[in-house]
Each structure stands twice: as structure tokens, then as C-alpha cells.
Amino acid sequence: MIFEVDEKLRKRAKSPHELSMMNLVACHLIAAPAAIVLDVGLLGFLIPLGLSLSMIAFIWLRASKGVAKDPWFVAAHWRLSANRTRILLIGYTISAVILGMALMATSGSSKGDIMMVAISRVAVVPTLLTVMVCFVLESGSIYQAGRGEVPDGITRRMPPPDDLVVVEGPAVTVADNS
Question: In terms of Cα–Cα distance, which of 13, 4, 28 is closest to 143?
Fold first, then answer.
């Protein structure tokens, strides 16, 4: 749904999506590859992961507080951004499961270090794929916030206040009684 929202609120509604994009860029496109190139070992996974989880936690906390203190349009976009971080967490979980299984499989092997290097490169693929998906979704959300739009799923979970003017709503079909 597209709402009649002033420019100041639209800019505020872009903030959670921009923060998510900053998380994706800083932690996944800069810090993680840099840590791998610098060959810091396990810390190459843990430092970017810790930074990213901190930013995700902030987004979730801000989204939960925003319902009470922010205007509805801004709070809806914080909730949308918080919901989108779940996709990234699923990628983290799949990568962690692959790494955990690799650690168990290589723990008794004499060539365990070589295998772990190869498997760790494969284990980051689910995270990389979810990062790309989140990039697309968050960039689309920045566009939506800029035009005063809130996805229909969020408006169903967080109904807008009655005084908010709807410019363009969801398509409503009328049954033909003839």
C-alpha cells in the first residue's frame, strides 16, 4: 500500500534499510573477504559474524521499541527490516551446520586441516547467497520507503492508523452477482 507520508518520515523510514545495507557491505563484502585474505583463520569468520549479529540485534531492538515511539510508517519499515534479517540468519545457520559437520568429519583425520580449508570455502556459499538476496530485498525496501509504500504483509500484521491517507491500496476484487 502506498500512503501519503511527508518527506521527513520517508527519510526516517529508509534508515533501517540503509543500516541493513551497511551491515551487508561492511561485514560481508569488506570484513569477511579481508579476513580471509589476511589468513586470520577462524577469526576471519567470527569477527564479521559478531559485527553482523550486533547490527542485527540493534535492528531487532529498535524495531521492537519503534512500535511504541515512532510514527506508524517508520515503525513498519523497522519491522520490515528486522523481518528481512531472518533470511541472513538462516544463511548463517546453514553455514554453521556445514562447518560443524566438517569439524566432526575431519577431527580424526591426518589431512583434516586441508579438508577444513576446502570445506570452509564451500560453507560460506549459503551465507553469500543470502547476502545477495538481502541486498536485493533491502534496496527494494529503500525504494519503497522513498515512495511511501509499505508491503501488504506488514500492513496486515501492523494495521495503519485510521488517519493515514492511502494513495494506492491493494487490488480488491468485487464478486459479480449477475
Answer: 13
